[in-house]
Amino acid sequence: MVQRIRKKSAARYSRSSHEKPAISGVIPIKRQAEIEAIRKAGRVVAGVLAMFEEIIRAGMRTKELDKMAEEFIYDNGAKPAFKGYRGFPANICVSVNSEVVHGIPGEYEIRDGDLVSVDVGAIVDDFYGDGAATYYVGEPAQEVKRFIETTRRALDEGISRMVSGNRVGDISNAVQRVVEGGGYSVVRDLVGHGIGRNMHEEPQIPNYGVAGTGPLIQDGMVFAIEPMVNMGRHGIRTLDDGWTVVATDGGLSCHFEHTVAAAPDGPQILTLPG
Fold first, then answer.
1. Cβ partners under 8 Å of residue 115, min gap 6
2. 0.90 cut: is pTM over it?
3. Nearest alpha carbon to residue 184 among 233, 113, 114
4. Which of 104, 112, 127, 242 is geometrically suited to a Cys-Cys bond with 37, CB 3.0 to 4.6 A?
5. pLDDT digits (tens, 9 = 90+) for 38-62
6. What domains can be seen in the chain, in order of their start residue?
């Protein structure tokens, strides 16, 4: 689940009862056993996203996706991470077309031509995994296909900078260069985040920034890296439901995310199928 830039959101949300407070300013270093626990949760997340790759189609209601995800998560020995988190009312986030993130599944009927972004979180042994993907329903126009692939490539480039000795700004800058090089806009008021025993830990991971700046990356750190990209301008607003974030210009938005660990042999993506 996406984190809002802290200075803009601290007064808005209360911490859920099952989330233990992270130590402000301190980036946790995970032991290998902890990373493996996060990987177990990440594999459940990856399973949900892979399932949706095969089944999302016109005529489905977004609440059906929520129910399928809930069943898959429990059937695989995990718990949904989002249900009840800071009051969120569903198991997953489903955001359609100009919805950027945090869409609440409901009665909306998916149509051909829709761009559907799904954000999934799972908990295994008190550790969190978090991932997201965007799907096109039907055959996308060439420009929409390029938009999706650019966002996916921005994630890949960001992950490639998740290396001990680099800084968070190296991740941020890599994402920004790919997105803006494609002619699109990085959402600036929402960020990725550290993750582990809490859904949101230090540090925040903006999708824009200056290379060589920010906290130092060390082996054992685990981040949720998640480009959120608008086809038009970067401005966003939150709907009256208090959750659904939309592009203010009404343009399409795209979202991909992986949970990634810094390791001696390079970045380890923890949200891949087992």
1. 96, 97, 134, 135, 136, 137, 144, 148, 252, 253, 254
2. yes
3. 233
4. 127
5. 999 999 999 999 999 999 999 999 9
6. 3-9+22-269 (3.90.230.10)
